[in-house]
Specification:
Layout lengths: L2 H8 L8 H42 L5 E2 L5 H14 L2 E5 L7 E5 L7 H8 L6 H38 L1 H11 L1 H11 L4 E2 L2 E2 L9 H21 L7
Helix pairs in contact: 2-3, 6-7
């Protein structure tokens, strides 16, 4: 045995765990395993309850929605998984960690935009709220129609002012002065008189048939005149 072997043999090995420590570690491990098993069992039971509720909800077909109580994200994810597997819609509302909850709807009977708006605002949705939202929509539609009609009236009035020259008078008065604007506006009006005879009296009041008959009569008269006064023919 050399010097190095003697040193190694003289060193003490790591202290071995006592029986009490071994038993404590074993119990701790068993407790952890029991807790994990309990959690798995609880999750499986919760999933089965959700599956049963959603199945009954689908079979009923008349209930507008199936609402669950507020719960943690892990349980909401189970609800979503079961709902998607069953082919129905699921929405979550509320503040996470405080009052966030899930609601299941049938595939062809999802929530309206009004319901989504109300629930996302943290309010409860019921028949009274639905009636209130519908009434608000009617009032908004009436207000929009009234504003549209007022806008049409303003445009119609403005068009009349443009034809009368009032619009241009008001538009350019601050640039060229009130009197000049009035004069310019008057020039935009249609001249209703040419010379001493009103322009209205200068319009041809005859019908098309009368006009054609007059033209034909003039041509016949001219032809008779030309026939009665033949030109001299040189021989």
């Amino acid at each position: 045995m050399d010097f190095l072997d003697s040193i190694l043999n003289s060193m003490q090995g790591p202290p071995s765990a006592s029986e009490a420590q071994k038993n404590a570690m074993k119990k701790q491990k068993e407790a952890l395993e029991r807790k994990q098993k309990q959690e798995r069992d609880m999750i499986n039971k919760f999933r089965k309850r959700v599956e049963e509720k959603i199945s009954n909800f689908i079979k009923d077909g008349n209930t507008p929605y199936l609402q669950f109580e507020p719960m943690d994200q892990m349980y909401r994810s189970i609800i979503r998984d079961v709902a998607e597997t069953a082919g129905v819609q699921v929405f979550s509302f509320g503040q996470d960690g405080i009052d966030r909850y899930s609601i299941v709807y049938l595939k062809d009977k999802g929530p309206s935009e009004d319901e989504l708006t109300v629930r996302r605002a943290g309010c409860a949705w019921n028949d009274a709220k639905a009636a209130e939202m519908a009434e608000n929509k009617v009032e908004k539609a009436k207000q929009a129609a009234l504003e549209s009609e007022e806008d049409k009236n303003r445009k119609r009035k403005r068009g009349k002012e443009e034809l009368s020259g009032t619009f241009y008078k008001q538009k350019y008065a601050h640039l060229i002065g009130q009197e000049a604007a009035i004069d310019a506006a008057q020039k935009t009006n249609m001249n209703k008189s040419y010379g001493e005879v009103p322009s209205a009296n200068k319009k041809d009041q005859r019908s098309i048939e009368q006009t054609m008959a007059d033209i034909k009569a003039k041509k016949m008269k001219k032809a008779e005149t030309d026939k009665g006064n033949p030109e001299d023919v040189q021989t």
